[in-house]
Design goal:
about 150 residues, globular, mainly alpha
């Protein structure tokens, strides 16, 4: 049985985007409090296509604001996403799944194979301590204005 199935049944097709996001945030908090907010549960939700709930869960998991999570998901370089994943302890398979999902959602002009290879290279070569320092700086700013000026560059 799916961890979230009973809670998800309470969502209505008629919910507005804001209502859905609020419910997603409430569910992410509940899962976290129950010890059920894990890489595995987030990957299951992402595979099921529930973007709002995944964003709320990933935000809670990384301790980064939802709006910032959306920004890093749609950054074609994947470097900010890699830093967030490394810092949160998400393994390479999880990073590949999240990056692949985000890549599919971006416009075709921003889906270069080179970006994918560079994102994987960055994930593999970034020390955990460096990723932790970058994410800590993001967490300390209510709305980080630039990921690249906080330690991520080519």
């Amino acid at each position: 049985s799916d961890v979230c199935s009973s809670d998800l049944r309470t969502w209505k097709e008629t919910d507005t985007a804001e209502e859905r996001q609020n419910k997603a945030q409430q569910l992410a908090v509940s899962l976290d409090e129950q010890g059920l907010l894990t890489q595995e549960s987030m990957m299951r939700i992402l595979r099921n296509g529930d973007v709002a709930l995944f964003i709320a869960m990933f935000s809670r998991f990384t301790k980064l604001e939802d709006s910032f999570i959306k920004r890093i998901l749609f950054d074609p370089s994947g470097r900010a996403l890699a830093a967030a994943c490394i810092s949160a302890g998400i393994d390479e398979e999880g990073f590949r799944l999240i990056y692949g999902f985000a890549r599919k959602a971006r416009p075709p002009a921003t889906k270069g194979r080179r970006d994918y290879q560079e994102a994987l290279y960055y994930y593999a070569r970034t020390p955990t301590e460096a990723a932790n320092n970058i994410v800590k700086r993001w967490q300390e700013h209510p709305d980080p204005t630039g990921m690249w000026d906080l330690g991520i560059s080519r």
